[in-house]
Amino acid sequence: MASVTHAAVFGRNPALSVAELHALSGRHGFGIRPLGKYAAELTGFEPKLAERLGSVTKLFELRPDVYRDARAGLEAAAAAVPAEGKFAFGVSSYANDKATPLAMHVKRFLKERGVRSRSVGKPKGKSGRPEDGELSAVQVRHNGLISPGADWGVFGTDDGYHVGRTVWVYDFEGFGARDYDKPVADAKRGMLPPQLARTMVNLATQGDPGLAVYDPFCGVGNLLLESLLLGHRTIGSDITPDAVDAARRNLAWLRERHPKLPESEVSVRDATGELPAGSSSAIATEGYLGSPLRESAKAGDMGREATFVETMVGKFLQRAADSLPSGRRLVLTLPAWRTPGSRTPIRITTIDQAERLGYAVIRPLPEGFSFPELTDRDSIDVARAKQRVIHELFILERN
Question: Which of 2, 98, 263, 325 has the fewest CB atoms within 10 Å, i.e. is most exposed?
Fold first, then answer.
């Protein structure tokens, strides 16, 4: 009997999604390869592992066959629907085929078999996807399209169409609560999104549950919250006492909802000074992003800010190298500034000295994957289209 394969649908940043899966694949023993433009095919993947992910939105269980066209695949998937009751379903297309005509074809196919059905439609405006494409995780959950209904996915590849059924969607309610409902938020400190924070923890730990995670620029604690929920003993620090107080309040809020979390501690500390020795076995952090820029900021303003940040980053990387065990990872984001009239952002060059400081820069993607977000420095650019400051994400490993 053939082993079950799954399709993991990418979030807003496909490179980040693949990097996270790749980081976990070694310890958890699953294979990963491209499946069209918007997903990766996973072999030997345990669906319960999806709960740990930050950059994947949906998981489909794939049928073993490859089909000549999308309609044939959907008919094969829908053939097992029982005639009793009214069956709710949707179609998510990750191919060139539009979802609405495919859903109408399935509805006619079910009617011919005596099955009454209700088709869930696709709203417009999903970022980064064809307009008439996938159902959102919210639609799938709220319409019961994992069970008792179905969200069937169609994936177009060079060898034909793969078809699957959604078995998991990401916890949009949990991420939303940690983004908007925690006691203290501070937009001026960057507001690292919870999904990105979780992904960074996974990149740093590679899914090893026995590691302690340290965030030396913790701000209000977004990364600390995700690290704890993943089961890691967690240490945070920040140079600003107000930020440390905010992080402690947010951690207390999380513990009220999840009383069995691992240990954590937060302290006031300068990340360019001596770091806690031996207290962590992985570092994940949103590095200092520089001072907020005025809307009228010019390239010269950004260049001066970059020079200041470079000095700070250099000192931090040296300190981190002194405390990070050999073979362990440091995952950090650094600012890169989009300048008016230029396609080339201003980037921090200190990272180019990583090898001299005792690190290796890890390429985040496995063979066979390439995305525009992957830079020639083996980093991943994380930003929205009009965002002035890019988060440039690096994975460093201590030699």
Answer: 2
